Amino acid sequence: MKRVVLIKIAEYDPQILKQKIKSTLERYFPLEQYFSFRDKILLKPNLLMPSSPHEAITTHPAILETLGEIFKEKGFDVFIADSPGGFVSERDMDYVYQGCELKDVAKRIGLELLYPTESMVREGIPLCWWAVSGRKRETFKIINVPKLKTHDIMVLTLAVKNLYGCISGLHKSHLHKKYPRPQEFSEVLIKLYQMIKPSLNIVDGILAMEGRGPAKAGSPRRLGVIVIGNDALYTDFVISRLLGLKDEENPLLKKAKEKGLFCEEELEFISEDKDFKVKDFVFAPPAITNQIPAAFLWLFKLLIRFRPIINKDKCTGCGICVKVCPKGAIEIKKQKAVIDYSKCIMCMCCSEMCRFGAVDLQSSIFVKALKKLGHVLGRISK
Ligand code: SF4
Ligand code: SF4
Asked: Which tens digit of pLDDT belongs to each residue from 159-209?
């Protein structure tokens, strides 16, 4: 049985978090059922970039601290690991851990922070060493701790999408380039879901993100929930429905259903608040690439062009976008990023990874005209 439980928690209050998460685990996900005494526990948050918790870009450190405490009290060794975008070296990752306030957490309760320094290829995908089971050095039981956020390509980023951060370093950008459309990208995510299978998924939806997520362009939105599930896909399904999204509008769920991986009858959903539903959640604008047959993608790129533009006032010339760009389309000139559009494939990795919010999305005149027409038609039909 796939079990998903929703609990309501208004704030990141350490005492309330601990009491509620602990009692939910004891009641619905007894640890002895999921873990053996010798297991090493790896918490896998979403640490997209160094970012303050109030921006809702990354998993809140209070949740990771709470989980660390709960598992340590039970006698487990607990680790934290992620592999966000272009942060590949230990120094880069230290910068992320520091920025996400996890260095303090690790020190306070004795957790070890791991680094994505080695990778192992599984089914054609290079994974970080800590995500590969059966490795001689160490095997971890993964607890997936994503943030509840919108995503400009996948509509939502929840438990399954968070597994993308198990892919080693810059390979993530290359896969984005290879599979630019949500349908194809969903195949990669499903492969990861089938390979990695976290023991538990604990989604941080207390301060979620809506609008043009998953990074600086999104807006924090207080939902006051944590969703815990023993299967990443079913956990995502529950959240997607609670946010008012139809299954066919969620590319990941659509693909999972096509592949016969999802059966609603197998789901047991338990909610602390039976009436909980989010009525006016703002999603990112739908990915038009999803609607266009692959053969016509070139025409789409020509006419319906969304392209990244550098906001020179915000750009610090840090060079992260240069590292993550899968096409080598960005250079730093006079301390500012400059994009060569003849190479750009509009994957938007640069926008996602820029922690200064210096990469904006510019739409073509054709798209602007379509939007205007949509507004006019909308007014006429009212
Ligand atoms: S656009 Fe962003 S990531 Fe790129 S150099 Fe400027 S500040 Fe750094
Ligand atoms: S410049 Fe273009 S190809 Fe490079 S990361 Fe940005 S959107 Fe992707």
From this structure: 999 999 999 887 887 787 778 789 899 999 999 999 999 999 999 999 999
pLDDT at 368 over 80: no
CATH number of 2-271: 3.40.50.11440
* Lowest-confidence region among 74-78, 313-317, 319-323: 319-323
Tally of CB atoms within 10 A around 6 = 23
> DSSP letter at 74?
T
Domain ranges of the chain: 2-271, 292-381
pLDDT the model gives residue 349: 80
Judge whether 173 and 324 are in contact, CB under 8 Å: yes
β pairing state of 147-151 and 200-211: parallel
Calpha distance 289→341 (Å, rounded): 18
Ligand that lies nearest to the alpha carbon of residue 334, given by its number in the listed order: 1
Handedness of CA 97, 98, 102, 104 (dihedral sign): positive
* Cα 124 to averaged position of ligand 2 atoms, centre (Å): 23
Crossing angle (nearest 10°) for helices 90-99 and 102-109: 90
Nearest CA to ligand 1 atom 8: 318
Tell me: the pLDDT tens digits for 263-277? 999 999 999 999 999
8-55 per-position pLDDT tens digit: 999 999 999 999 999 999 999 999 999 998 899 999 999 998 899 999
Q: Is the CB of 354 under 6 A from ligand 1?
A: yes
Best mutation site among 342, 348, 353, 354 for ligand 2 pocket (most ligand atoms within 8 Å of CB):
348
Q: Tell me if the pTM is above 0.85.
A: no
Ligand 2 atom nearest 339 alpha carbon? 1
Q: Are 2-271 and 292-381 the same fold in CATH? A: no
- For residue 246, the one-letter residue type is K
Q: Which positions ≥6 away from 196 have C-beta within 8 Å?
A: 127, 131, 142, 163, 166
CATH architecture, range 292-381:
2-Layer Sandwich (3.30)
CA dist., res. 22 & res. 31, Å (int): 10
Give CA 25 to chain center in angstroms. Answer: 23
